[in-house]
Amino acid sequence: MDMRLIEEGTHIAEKAHRFRTTLGAVNARIVVLAHFVGARLDTEGEVQQILDRSNPAFRQQVGQPNMHSGHAGRAAQRAWEELRGLIVLRCDLVKNALQALGLGLTYEVTSQVEQALARKGIKPGADGFHLQMQMDRIVGTNIDQSIP
Questions:
Q1: Among 87, 129, 123, residue whose Cα is nearest residue 111
Q2: How far apart are CA 13 and CA 19, in angstroms?
Q3: Number of continuous H segments (helices) and E segments (strands) in the chain
Q4: Burial of residue 31, with CB atoms counted within 10 A of its CB: 0-12 exposed, 13-18 middle, 19 or more buried
């Protein structure tokens, strides 16, 4: 067997392991922050409102008291911003994984991460990872088409 193939396989396995570990930690933190601030991540629309800061929690009316006054309010504001940042980071992680690992391996790793959250009692979708459902459809379609 060619040593380059073995080294390449080891390199890909290491990338997949790093991706799994990082994505698991990011998704777990997203779940904690979403719970803390009371964010709903059940639909892509709700996640999009966080990404584009159109969620009411990001709005501040001039001259009116808001949830961001005082220490607790600042903590909530920071949590909303961290939640948004982690969702953006997750998008970048998945994009990079797709480029480095391909659809099949990225799908496998993201499925493992979602299953690990489910084993911890986290309901599907609580982390707002709707790309997993899209990948289920794409990979399922590709598998169905390959069966004669």
A1: 129
A2: 10
A3: 4, 0
A4: buried
What are the tens digits of pLDDT across the range 44-97? 889 999 999 999 888 753 344 555 556 667 888 999 999 999 999 999 999 999
In the predicted structure, residue 108 carries a pLDDT above the cut 50:
yes
Taking the C-alpha atoms of residue 123 and residue 118, their distance in angstroms, rounded to an integer, is 6
* Confidence (pTM): 0.79
For the chain, how far is it from start to end, CA to CA, in angstroms? 32
CA distance 112 to 22: 12
Closest CA to 82 of 57, 112, 110: 57
Query: From the centroid of its chain, how far is CA 137?
Result: 17
Round to whole Å and give the CA distance between 5 and 70.
Answer: 58
